[in-house]
Structure formats: structure tokens, C-alpha cells
Design brief:
552 residues; alpha/beta; Rossmann fold; Growth Hormone, Chain: A
Length: 552
């Protein structure tokens, strides 16, 4: 045998053994149990999407659910995950670096659990701080800061998981493509579960806080399982897992508005919901502090709020009167504040209320004494209901779906108002509640008015004293306001509506919209709404500052 050849063969064998030892060094035990990596990839993918979706529900009572909020949540989390991918790739190339990812997943579970325990306090504190620093952009900066400090850290750590898991799973370079594809597929399938479970099951049944804790528990169990198998660490991880299980079972009664004592606080598929005492009655809110969506006073015929103003709607019609029964459609029924007063003053009328949130409809019955006698209730999206009933006709439609800055854009467009016009009887009246202050030509209120006037040319507005609500009355002819003023004079002296109609008379004026016609293709309501919120915050901060100066 040639000595040179034998020496080269020995070197080749030695090099092969060296390369094999390096590969085994990076993955001593995982190679014997591929299922651990698969389950871990699945769980991390589910946790990322679960945190992202649940984050929007944690922010909703404070900042709403507009596209601005969604954009900030998605953008910050994607950025955090991208940075995590880069970090994870570098970590995977280090000796024993791939195994360290299990410790990072363990820390991610701690961050997610911390969101459940302290998230609402940090959001409240950051909101007050940012009011002083960025009063002109509180919606964007507030949601961005909340996402950066609360949701970005765990998503960064989970973003680092995939490169490390791929490195641990690789047996050889020939199967690298297949292994990478399988782990990414499992992570994506996990993300599907993390998308659907919180929306349709976890948040409606368990609430936002427990949903965060469940995902924290999933991450912690996965990390602890791998740490124990790898004999890296385990004792403190097991203890923490037990603590998380106890928190999942015991955490309750933690109100978003922790400075209040609500009668009921719950969450539905669509909303954060809170019932509070309001004078002698009750009020329903979908925010922690701003406005009410419905009120109920057991001993009062009128609510004392904007819900009373649509009672003037039939008087704008050319075919209805104070005594005429009519068919009314309420889009955005809430707990039935307007439906009750409408039934009282127009007892023979046919009233249908459409409410997208089934939980609100349940609360109407359980807390607000709403019954089938008050209105026929349909749980459905307003526009879907309109499209599904092409033959139906109504004498009056009350649109009350604009909840502060969270406007469903598809209910503000020209196409939607054209559908409403087709469902209206001749001489019918459209009444709209716009819960927004006006900033002048081109603002959101004027854009909505301009869009309505493309279908109903005659439009009047009535500002509700003491708040930001504006009630719009739209008719097909120009005599609507004149008919209302004339009918008002025929009210009996003891009629509870006399003072209400007098207030409407004093605040009623024609409205000519000066803005952009909103369409299904182009309706920038989020941008317009953010301008309004920034202006409201800026004016509020200025008023507080002036009051403080006056005291000093």
C-alpha cells in the first residue's frame, strides 16, 4: 500500500469524524426526538399570533380598534420578529447556541405573563405620560409605545426560535430544505391555531388576561420540557409552570378600568363591555372612560342623552306624523335605549333593531330590562342585513353604529347609503348619530355629510348640547325642517318631548357637507379620525393646563 495514500485516507476519516462530532455537538439529544422540535415550532407560532390578536383587545378599551391600532400592532410585532430572526440566526451558529433558545422561550413566557398582570397599568400610565409629550399624535404614539414595551420583547424572543430550531433539526445538508420547510409549515399551522382560538373561543369565554396567561403557560411548558430533556435547567422552570397554572385558574375580577367598580365587565367577539351605574339607572360602555353606548333609567321615559333626538325623525317625513304608526329600523341597537322610547311614544310602530354583538343583546335583556315587546332583535352586521333584505321597506332608519373613532368604514360609504335609500319608503327619513366633534371643512363629519347628500340632498344637523354628538336628519325634499317645526307646535302641553323638541329647534340648521365623498374603494376614516382625536387631546391638555395656572 502506498504510504501517501494511507496517510490521506487517515486524514479524510479524521476530518469526517471531526465534522460529525461538530454536528452532534450542536444537537446531542434533539436528533433522537424530532417531535420535540416540531411541537415547539408549532407552539411558538401559535403564541406569536395569539399575542398579536389578544394585544388588540388589550389596547381596545384605551385606544379603540381602528386601522391605526391594528397597523401599529402588526408593524411593531413584525419588526420585533424580524430582529429576532437575525439574532436567532447568529445565536444558532454559536457553540451550544441552539440549545439556549429554550431559555429564551422560557423568558418569553415570563414577558407574556407580565402583559396579563401589569399590561393595563402600563398602558394607562403611558397614556397619561404621552398626553404631555405628544398631545398632537396620541393615538399613533400611544399604541406604538404600548406595543414596543409590552408586545415587542416576547415576539423578539420567539422570532429567534425558528433559526435555532432549524439548526437543531438538521441532520445533514442534503435534507436542509425539507427540514426547514417542515418546521416553517408547523410554525405557520400553529399561527393558524393562534389566530382562530383567541377570536372565537378563548377571549369570549376566558377574557383577555387569561388568554395571555394560557399562551404564557404553553410557552413555559414547551421551554421547561426541552430544558429538562436537555439537562440544562429545570427546577425553577417547573416551579414557574405551576405558578402560571395557578394564575390561569385564579386570575379574575381585574377590571380594565381598575379605578372603577363596574356592575359587569366582560368581553365579546367584538367588544370590551362594561355596565356601570349612571345616576338612577345603568349605562353600557365599550371604553374604559369615554362615553356610553346605551343608558337606561327605569323611572324615565326619556334617556336625557342623544338617543332621544331621533324621536323627532318622523316629524321630518312627508307621510308620518305624531300619531302615525311607522316602520323603523335601528342599525346599532345597543341595549335598546332608543327602541324603548320609540315604543313608548309610537306604540303601534313596527321596530326592528340590528346589533352585530350578540353579547350586547344578552346584556340588554339581563341588565337593561329589554324585551321582545320593545323591538325585534336581529344579531347581524348592519350592511349584511340590508343586503339580505332587498324587499324590505322602512319609513325611518336610525343609524347608530359610529362608536367614537371606531367607525366601521363600510357603513360610511356612498354605496351603503344608496342601499339604505333603496330600502326607504317614499317620504322616509334617515337619522344618523355621529359621535364626533367638527373641526371644519374636510373633517370626518363633513365627509360623512357630503356622502349622505350625494343620496339625500337635504340634510340638517343638530348638535347635542354638552357633548360631541351630532344628529343628522336626511330627507328627499327640502321641507323636512319646516314640517318638524310645524308638528312641534301641535304637541300637548304635558308631552315630555316638548322641551326636547325645543332644544332641537334651537340647535337645528341646514348642513352642506364640505369634504370627500367616501366610497367602498376610498374611505380614509382612520386618518380623519386620528386628526380629531389629536385635536381633542390637545384641547383637553390645554384646558387642564390653563386651569392649573388659574389656581396657581
Amino acid at each position: 500500500m502506498n504510504p501517501g495514500t494511507s496517510m490521506e485516507n487517515a486524514r479524510w476519516v479524521g476530518a469526517s469524524l471531526h465534522n460529525s462530532s461538530i454536528l452532534l455537538y450542536h444537537a446531542p439529544m434533539i436528533l433522537s426526538d424530532r417531535s420535540a422540535l416540531c411541537v415547539t415550532a408549532f407552539g411558538c407560532g401559535a403564541a406569536v399570533m395569539g399575542v398579536e390578536l389578544t394585544a388588540t383587545r388589550l389596547l381596545a378599551p384605551y385606544y379603540g380598534t381602528s386601522m391605526v391600532v391594528w397597523t401599529m400592532v402588526i408593524g411593531v410585532i413584525l419588526a420585533a420578529m424580524s430582529l429576532g430572526n437575525v439574532y436567532g440566526g447568529r445565536l444558532a451558529d454559536q457553540p451550544n447556541g441552539a440549545q439556549r433558545i429554550f431559555s429564551l422561550i422560557w423568558w418569553a413566557s415570563i414577558f407574556v405573563a407580565g402583559i396579563a398582570l401589569w399590561g393595563k397599568y402600563l398602558i394607562s400610565a403611558s397614556f397619561l405620560l404621552l398626553l404631555l409629550v405628544f398631545p398632537d399624535s396620541i393615538l399613533a404614539t400611544g399604541t406604538a409605545a404600548s406595543c414596543l414595551f409590552l408586545f415587542a420583547p416576547p415576539c423578539f424572543l420567539l422570532g429567534a426560535a425558528t433559526p435555532c430550531l432549524i439548526r437543531l433539526a438538521l441532520r445533514d445538508l442534503e435534507s436542509s430544505g425539507r427540514v426547514t420547510g417542515e418546521l416553517y409549515a408547523l410554525s405557520t399551522i400553529g399561527s393558524l391555531f393562534g389566530t382562530f382560538l383567541p377570536t372565537f373561543w378563548m377571549i369570549p369565554l376566558m377574557g383577555t388576561m387569561r388568554t395571555f396567561l394560557v399562551f404564557a403557560l404553553v410557552l413555559n411548558v414547551l421551554a421547561t420540557w426541552n430544558l429538562v430533556r436537555e439537562k440544562i435547567s429545570g427546577r425553577k422552570s417547573v416551579v414557574y409552570t405551576v405558578l402560571l397554572m395557578l394564575l390561569c385558574g385564579c386570575l379574575s375580577g381585574q377590571a380594565f378600568a381598575f379605578w372603577k367598580q363596574p356592575i359587569l365587565e366582560t368581553e365579546s367577539l367584538y367588544n370590551y363591555l362594561r355596565v356601570d351605574r349612571f345616576g338612577t339607572g345603568l349605562a353600557l360602555s365599550t371604553h374604559v372612560e369615554v362615553n356610553f353606548q346605551s343608558v337606561y333609567h327605569p323611572k324615565q321615559v326619556l334617556s336625557g342623552g342623544y338617543w332621544d333626538y331621533p324621536l323627532a325623525g318622523p316629524l321630518f317625513s312627508s307621510t308620518l306624523s305624531l300619531e302615525t304608526p311607522f316602520r323603523v329600523l335601528i342599525l346599532g341597537l345597543g341595549t335598546g335605549t332608543f327602541a324603548k322610547s320609540c315604543r313608548w311614544f309610537y306604540p303601534n310602530s313596527e321596530i326592528t333593531g340590528v346589533e352585530i354583538d350578540a353579547r350586547i343583546a344578552e346584556i340588554a335583556s339581563s341588565h337593561f330590562e329589554f324585551t321582545e315587546r320593545d323591538a325585534k332583535v336581529v344579531v347581524e352586521d348592519a350592511r349584511t342585513y340590508i343586503q339580505r333584505n332587498p324587499e324590505a321597506r322602512w319609513d325611518m332608519i336610525f343609524l347608530d353604529t359610529y362608536r367614537d373613532l371606531t367607525l366601521p368604514f363600510h357603513l360610511t360609504t356612498l354605496e351603503f347609503f344608496q342601499q339604505l335609500r333603496e330600502r326607504m319608503t317614499p317620504g322616509g327619513v334617515l337619522v344618523i348619530n355621529v359621535n364626533l366633534p367638527t373641526l371644519g371643512p374636510g373633517d370626518l363629519l363633513n365627509c360623512i355629510a357630503k356622502t349622505v347628500q350625494a343620496v339625500w340632498p337635504n340634510l340638517w344637523q343638530c348638535t347635542v348640547p354638552g357633548n360631541v354628538n351630532t344628529i343628522l336628519f336626511a330627507t328627499s325634499d327640502e321641507n323636512g325642517a319646516h314640517r318638524f317645526l310645524k308638528a312641534r307646535e301641535n304637541l300637548p302641553v304635558n308631552d315630555p318631548r316638548r322641551a326636547l323638541f325645543e332644544t332641537i329647534t334651537q340647535n337645528l340648521r341646514p348642513l352642506k357637507g364640505e369634504g370627500t365623498v367616501l366610497t367602498d374603494d376610498l374611505a380614509p376614516i382612520e386618518v380623519l379620525g386620528e386628526r380629531i382625536l389629536d385635536a381633542m387631546v390637545r384641547d383637553g391638555v390645554r384646558e387642564v393646563f390653563l386651569r392649573v395656572l388659574s389656581v396657581i
